[in-house]
Amino acid sequence: MDAVKIFVCEQATRLRVDGALCEAGPGQLLVSGGRGQVEAVDDTCLCLTVFDADFKVIYPELADLVDPATPVMAFKPEPLRRIAAEAEVLRVVAVLADANRNAMLRFVFVFCLGHDRRYFSALLRQRAIGDPHFFEFIANNSLNPWSVTRYAEELGIPLRKFNELFVEKYGVSAKHWLLEHRLQHARGLLVMTRQRVVDIALECGFSNHAHFADSFKRRFGLSPSSWRQSGRPVGDRSLCG
After folding, report:
1. Sign, Cα dihedral of 84, 55, 6, 236
2. Among candidates 214, 180, 175, 173, which has minimal Cα distance to 197?
3. 238: pLDDT confidence band, cut at 50, 70 and 90?
4. Average pLDDT for 108-130
5. In the Cβ-directed half-sphere of 238, how many Cα atoms lie within 13 Å?
């Protein structure tokens, strides 16, 4: 399945759904089902792409709102689902999209569940529960000092297929995501623990201190030691939520 797309339409807009042109009036949230091709024709609306990894992150916090009786295997999402939304709701989505991606996604799907619990429960469960082995493997081994090739070998799939699957599930390449994840984890350890920097580097999957220090400074603008001394918070935006 393709990634789910959310279109935030504060004004009238045009979209192409599986090649057919359709129009959407102002004051709508449009949610693609992840089957078929849906794209905006012009730039009159905000388009947000939601990958399976995003659903994995937000689902635990929404689980109590989801109808557990909704089917998953038999569920066939619509190419595009339309939800009427007040201007204030759409503005909140736009603001959160710039400030905190996960908070924005939680807000959108809480709103959608309030309008159509059965449909969006099925959509959330289908995207969050699918392919558990792949996600569990990445989560359990993301800090291992492995190359991308090693991950593919451990899963028993060709490297090209692994890279394609990773982009499909996470929205970025495995190399990019793994580096970001390791750096974010290291940043937290620098602030919350007194571990030696070299030990943090090794714990987070870096083969040596120099590689870790160079990568950290390129990402955050400070060396690991300077970051620790500055007492910087760990809550800024990142690819890993």
Report:
1. positive
2. 214
3. very low
4. 94
5. 19
User: Cβ(32)–Cβ(80) under 8 Å?
Assistant: yes
Using CB atoms within 10 A of its CB, is residue 73 exposed (0-12), middle (13-18) or buried (19+)?
Answer: exposed
Q: How far is CA 68 from CA 42, 85, 118, in A?
A: 38, 25, 9
Rounded CA separation 148/26 (Å) = 44
pLDDT value for 42: 84
Rounded to two decimals, the pTM is 0.84
Task: Say whether domain 4-129 belongs to CATH 2.60.120.
Answer: yes
Look up tokens 């620098």; give the residue. Answer: 190
Q: For 200-221, how does the pLDDT look when each residue is reduced to its tens digit (9 = 90+)?
A: 999 999 989 999 999 999 999 9
Contacts of 102 by beta carbon, 8 Å cutoff, 6+ apart: 54, 57, 58, 241
* Amino acid identity, position 221: G
Structural domain boundaries of the chain? Answer: 4-129, 132-173, 175-230
Question: CB-hemisphere CA count at 13 Å for 156?
Answer: 1
pLDDT band at 106; cut points 50, 70, 90: very high
Q: Does domain 175-230 have CATH number 1.10.3720.10?
A: no
Domains 4-129 and 175-230 share a fold: no
pLDDT value of residue 232: 64
Cβ-based burial of 223 (10 A; exposed 0-12, middle 13-18, buried ≥19): middle
Residue 6, H or E segment = strand 4-9
